[in-house]
Amino acid sequence: MEAKPLNANATSELNRNTLINIQAFRITKKQPSTDNRKREFVHMQQENTLIFGQINKKHIMGKHTIQHWVTTSSEQGLDSRTPYKIIKRCNGCSLNDRRDNRENHRCYFNKNCLKLTCINRTRNYCNNPDAKIIIDILETSNS
Predict the structure, then answer these.
(1) How far is CA 20 from CA 13, 29, 31, in A?
(2) Cα-trace Rg, the chain
(3) What is the pLDDT of residues 106-119, one digit of tens each?
(4) Which own/partner pairs from 21-29 qualify as long-range (CB within 8 Å, at least 24 positions apart)?
(5) Domain spans in the chain, listed from the N-terminal domain onward
């Protein structure tokens, strides 16, 4: 026995609404621009860990020098429902590449631009230039 819809228009309207709804929640992953003047905030996944940074220099060969930013243990609520991640500049860790950063106490490393995803919306945190609030929804992969 085969089930047929009573109204073909109602079925197509249902499919159309479903497709519109699915598209509404789709997160667009944006790669960093090629404009050397832009210093985008980015994130990447490395060994099942989400790593944050800000592009410091864009190299011609597709690698970017990234200044590492780390999450703080606190979260800031910009409204009563949603907590946002707070990140601050890293003062040095195992990601630091000595070839890029010899005299500075900050943490810098190189990463292929194809592995980076832009964070589109950040805000200053408490008028501190070394701390930002990430407002974007970040999509991570479980691979």
Answers:
(1) 11, 19, 24
(2) 21
(3) 889 999 989 998 98
(4) 27/137, 27/139, 29/117, 29/139
(5) 41-134
Give me the count of residues in the chain: 143
Encode pLDDT of 61-98 as tens digits: 888 999 999 988 655 555 555 567 889 999 888 888 77
Q: Is 0.85 surpassed by the pTM of this model?
A: no
The token pair that represents 6 in the structure block: 């009573």
Give first-to-last CA distance, the chain, whole Å.
42
| H or E stretch at 10 | helix 8-24
Rounded CA-CA distance 70/104 in Å is 17
The DSSP output letter for 139 is P
b/e burial code for range 45-61 (CB count within 10 A of at least 16 → b):
beeeeebbbbbbebeee
d(CA 85, CA 135): 8
Cα 52 to its chain centre, rounded Å, is: 7
